[in-house]
Amino acid sequence: MKKRIFSGAQPTGQLHLGNYLGALKNWVALQNEYESFFCIVNLHAITLPQDPQVLRQKTLDLARIYLAAGLDPEVSTIFIQSDIAEHAELTWVLSCSSRMGELERMTQFKDKGKGNSERAGVGLFTYPVLMAADILLYQTHLVPVGKDQKQHLELARDLAERFNRDFGRTFVVPDPFIPPVGANILSLQEPAKKMSKSDENPNGAIFLLDDPDTITKKIKRAVTDSGTTVEYDEARPAISNLLTIYHLMTGRTIEESQAHFEGRGYGHFKAELAEAVVEFLKPFQEKAQSYTDDELNRILKAGAEKARVIARETLRDVYAKMGIVGAV
Ligand code: AQP
User: Fold this and answer.
1) 198-228: per-residue pLDDT in tens?
2) 155 in a domain, yes or no?
3) Which of 22, 130, 299, 301 keeps 20 to 30 A from 120, CA to CA?
């Protein structure tokens, strides 16, 4: 039997190159090798306030992006988190065995809660438990994610091991799959931070649906480090980030890319990088526009039906082991 992978993205903001290179690209590469589940995690999205109309639209738009990136609904199960009530139910169970201390250590809570736990939402605090439930429900072996999700994944492993220890073997303990390159694409404006959907400065991220003009402008305005050479150097995160993007867009190795730009300045490099990104995103953008809402809804409905069978089976086992029985 094939091993399973599970991963997801939130239907918030617009997906950017970081989401693609850190996550989606690897989902596509792994989907045939594993039994694959890819979720649109709309319940995670509401950990921060969302406009209902926009959230509804973004949910379908994210399905469009999954398909345009190359997820094949004949191969992968693609579904919306809120279609499977078991995600919320298992979250409750796991939150009863999660510790305040371990959730307080989560850096994303600290970042997104802006260090103000008095005002931060409880959902933002328990977000990693919902993520653990997402993963554990499907008896997942591997979770392809970007580096920012590593800590959350470690919590999912701890919760699985704790449950297995207390109630007997129930969950597969998942491993992360974090790509060696592209797992942490940085903001074009503040290279100390990751590229992010919720960045207040839209010039920090290249969104997958940005038009060529916008992409070119954003890359032109990208900050660079002091120095003039186009070289990968951890002490120069801005240029190294741009070089990583160039490498991943063109397939040229970092060494080949460095050799290609030897003796040429940042201006020349940025112009070629912009061209490479525009070229790379063109077919993707055309494909994204080609799906009708009906088509997407059909795919998501079929995905939910498949996912539900597995989620139910896992939750039933969890309840049975814990002595949770109903009258009907
Ligand atoms: N900058 C990044 N580089 C590499 N991978 C990244 N991911 C996110 N940012 C980068 C990976 O994308 C997947 C889906 O992310 P998400 O929708 O769960 O959102 P997120 O991780 O909270 O990060 P975002 O996209 O920047 O959104 P906001 O601004 O809302 O936090 C995940 O696998 C993630 O690791």
Assistant:
1) 888 989 999 999 999 999 999 999 999 888 8
2) yes
3) 22
| Cβ of 45 less than 6 Å from ligand 1 | no
Range of the domain at 36: 4-178+293-322
Per-residue CA distances from 209 to 157, 202, 215, 219 (Å) = 35, 13, 9, 15
Identify the CATH number of the domain in which residue 269 sits: 1.10.240.10
Q: Look up residue 181 and give its amino acid.
A: V
Distance from C-alpha of 203 to C-alpha of 274, rounded to nearest angstrom:
14
- What's the CA gap between 242 and 250, in Å, rounded? 12
d(CA 208, CA 143): 22
* 9 CA to centre of ligand 1 in angstroms: 7
Looking at the structure, tell me whether residues 144 and 80 fall in a common domain. yes
Q: Which residues pair with 166 in a beta bridge?
A: none
CATH number of the domain where residue 147 is located:
3.40.50.620
Question: What spacing in Å lies between the alpha carbon of 228 and ligand 1's midpoint?
Answer: 30
What crossing angle do the helices spanning 122-137 and 86-95 adopt, rounded to 10°?
110
Find all residues with CB under 8 Å of 29, minimum gap 6, and list them: none
Amino acid at 172: V
**How many structural domains does the chain have?**
2
Instruction: For residue range 71-101, list pLDDT tens digits in order.
Output: 999 999 999 999 999 999 999 999 999 999 9
Active site residues: 112, 194, 197
Euclidean distance between CA atoms 191 and 117, whole angstroms: 27
